[in-house]
Amino acid sequence: MKKIYHQILDFPQMVNQKVLNAQLNAAVDNFDSQNGVRSYTKSIYQILSIVVFIIMEVAIIHGAMAYFTGATSTGLAKLGSVLTTILLIYSAFPIAHIIRARGESLGASHNGMVSFIFKDLVTTNIRILGEVAAVGAFIGACCFTISFLLDNNLYNATTEVPLTAISGVAGLPMQGLGNLFSALKLDYLTSVLNNFSAWKMGGTQSFTGDMLWNINDLLLVGGAFVNVAWGLAILYINLAIYHFLYNIVSNFIKWIQSPSIPISMKSK
């Protein structure tokens, strides 16, 4: 009876050894919180880059098919849209590369788990979001330039890159600085900061196809490229803000662990 009892208790282990040869168990037992987390984080960003690439390409191609089958576009507009479609399809490649490269760089860092989670992970996501936005804005500006040169409304898809989780983490610097201003009763600075980060030049223009170029359209084209540079500037401002806030919190925690009050005693 006792033997049967132990066989029943050992049944899951026996199946596990025969089916998976204990490889999954060995992987869990050998999982290292230092190198393991970084290794799997690297894999997550690699998978994310493939997912983003596929979603972008499907959305761009689907939008292009809808544009070319429309009856409202002229022959010159469709010819120019072939160029813009190629540019948009190409844009998915550098965007996927940015996500993969930044993820691999994150997986290679070794600064301790606290620094990895609260510093490296956040700054990596800030860089990814800013650089992806810059690439998308640059390709959009190039497509807008072709529209200006051909004086026709060409296909220029604004695809939403599925980076919702990254966007939440990348927004921490501005949120943290806004909370700091609120705590110091400086709410007006929060409004100034939000307006500063959301500023953009120009807008969209509808081209008539009369092949007459005017200075306003040219300024809009220039503004589109200025927005790319401005977006990169905001990226590095976000990084600087987060490093500033991180250092404040890190130094405060270190002081709590070993508090000391610097008092200068001078003999008179």
Rough outline: flat
What's the SSE pattern?
A: HHHHHHHHH
Residues in helix, %: over 70%
Oligomer: single chain
Distance between the termini: 91 Å
Instruction: Give a short account of the largest sheet.
Output: none
Give the key terms.
268 residues; 76% helix; 0% strand; flat; mainly alpha; 9 helices
Fold and architecture overview:
This protein has 268 residues and is mostly helical. It has 9 helices and no strands. The termini are far apart. The mean pLDDT is 75.
Brief digest:
With 268 residues, this protein is an all-alpha fold.
Topology (SSEs and partners):
Blueprint: H1 2-19, H2 23-29, H3 35-68, H4 75-107, H5 113-150, H6 164-170, H7 172-183, H8 187-198, H9 215-257
Helix pairs in contact: 3-4, 4-5, 5-6, 5-9, 7-8, 7-9
